[in-house]
Design a protein that fits this description.
Elements (H helix, E strand, L loop, with lengths): L7 E8 L2 E12 L4 E2 L6 E2 L3 H15 L43 H5 L31 H15 L3 H10 L45 E2 L1 H12 L6 H8 L3 E2 L23 E2 L4 E5 L2 E10 L2 E8 L4 E7 L8 H9 L6 H4 L9
Antiparallel strand pairs: 1-2, 1-11, 2-3, 4-5, 6-7, 7-8, 8-9, 9-10, 10-11
Length: about 350
């Protein structure tokens, strides 16, 4: 951490699918010298997507939704007719493109909807298809949000309520929420840039399956323990979620190289399950989920056959630069496709 200028880090290590080591290091706020603690509330970034996939699979088990039924069949009117306040979230942009009628829950959870990551990253800020649904992996928060929207319509409940009822309350995750809670103000962990300067904190007012969740190491360790022990999911659901649904050929997960195919990761059979990435290792299959935003770098990986896993959460733009070394040191993971993830080690950066 010192060499790579990482402000703070939270780690839980799992053996026999149980947390046997859980600890935080460094600072939650560098300038104020506030220590990073297991109860510090931090931004979960895309770890939220793993929670959503877990919730979605519960609804699949309960036959509330079907993985392969077109999502429009759950709605009372055409998708483009929904105009949602806040976040420019409506679907009227799709009114002249019928491809939305093909999208299923499986496509949303495997990032194969054809949508961009987020519409606000597009030059015109509009939602559009980048390719035909079901034909290619391309990371998309928009796809997950669409499935969230449909589940909300089907259940008549907002996603924060669904999350609390399905996961947070049953698991005793008292300091986790999809929207910012005033009580979190007393124990905030801030994200920092490479110089250790804190970013302004985003306090989410709307729940997003793609990444609005705030949590703590203590709480998220509870969730991850439940997931890897497939508590709340049947063995069939867990296997479906954590096994390959679609192969990934892109050279990188994000950026220009995400559009270029290669054989770089054919040897590990890199692919995607439902809400998590998957690949093959000498330890058997592995499934992983990362989280990234300005000031935040998170990673989790589980080897189900070996029953070993790790959670890593960092509050600094440099955090991901120590992942390769930390994974190898802590659990012997030398298999994570760190180049595809752009986890360039601190001692290899220019």
């Amino acid at each position: 951490m010192k060499t790579a200028n990482v402000s703070g880090i939270a780690i839980s290590v799992f053996n026999h699918n149980k947390p046997i080591f859980s600890k935080t290091y460094g600072l939650a706020h560098v300038h104020k010298n506030i220590p990073f603690q297991q109860s510090s509330v931090l931004y979960g970034a895309s770890f939220a997507k793993m929670v959503f996939a877990y919730i979605a699979m519960q609804f699949v088990q309960e036959k509330v939704i079907d993985l392969d039924k077109p999502l429009v069949e759950y709605l009372s009117k055409p998708l483009p007719d929904y105009k949602i306040n806040g976040w420019n979230r409506g679907y009227e942009d799709l009114k002249n493109d019928d491809r939305y009628k093909k999208i299923t829950a499986r496509m949303c959870l495997t990032h194969t909807t054809g949508f961009p990551n987020w519409r606000w990253f597009e030059a015109d800020k509009k939602l559009k298809f980048k390719f035909d649904p079901g034909t290619r992996y391309s990371y998309s928060g928009e796809g997950l949000y669409l499935l969230q929207f449909v589940i909300e319509q089907v259940t008549g409940k907002d996603y924060e309520t669904i999350s609390q009822e399905s996961v947070f309350k049953p698991l005793g995750m008292t300091n986790t929420s999809q929207v910012w809670q005033p009580r979190f103000d007393a124990n905030i962990c801030y994200g920092h840039n490479e110089k250790g300067e804190p970013y302004e904190l985003m306090k989410w007012k709307e729940a997003s399956a793609g990444g609005s969740m705030s949590t703590t190491l203590e709480d998220f360790t509870k969730f991850y323990t439940a997931l890897i022990r497939n508590n709340g999911l049947s063995k069939k659901s867990f296997k479906t979620m954590t096994n390959t649904q679609v192969s990934i050929k892109s050279r990188s997960q994000f950026g220009p190289l995400a559009k270029i195919d290669s054989t770089d990761n054919d040897n590990i059979q890199l692919g995607y399950g439902l809400g998590v990435g998957v690949f093959k290792t000498p330890y058997g299959r592995a499934f992983f989920k990362e989280g990234h935003d300005d000031g935040w770098g998170h990673y989790s990986i589980c080897f189900p056959d070996k029953k070993i896993a790790i959670l890593i959460m960092t509050n600094n733009d440099n955090g991901e630069s120590i992942f390769k070394e930390l994974l190898a040191y802590s659990i012997g993971d030398t298999f994570t496709p760190w180049r595809w993830q752009n986890y360039i080690p601190y001692d290899e950066k220019n």
